[in-house]
Amino acid sequence: MSIEVNGTSYATDENGYLLNLGEWTEDVAKKLAEVEEIDMTEEHWNLVNFLRGYYEEYQIAPAVKILTKAIANEKGMDKKDASEFLYKLFPKGPALQACKVAGLPKPTGCV
Amino acid sequence: MAKKIVVLGGGTGGTIISNNLRRHLPKDWEITVIDRDDRHIYQPGMLFVPFGIQKSNTLVRSRKKYILPDVNFVIDEITHIDPDKKEVKTKNHKFSYDFLVISTGCKIVPEENDGLMDAWGKNAFSFYTIEAAEMLQKKLKEFVGGKLVMNIAELPFKCPVAPIEFVFLADWYFKNRGIRNKTEIELVTPLPGAFTKPKASAVFIESAKSKNIKITTGFELNAVNGKEKYIESVKGDKVSFDTLVIVPSTIGDKVISDSGMDDGIGYVPTHHNTLKALKYDSIYVIGDATNVPTSKAGSVAHYEADVVVFNIMSEIHGVKPEEIYDGHSTCFIVYSKGTSSLIDFNYKIEPLHGMFPAPKFGPFSLLKETKMNWYGKLGFEWLYWNVLLAGRHLGAPPTLVMAGKEVG
Question: What is the predicted ipTM?
Answer without folding.
Answer: 0.83
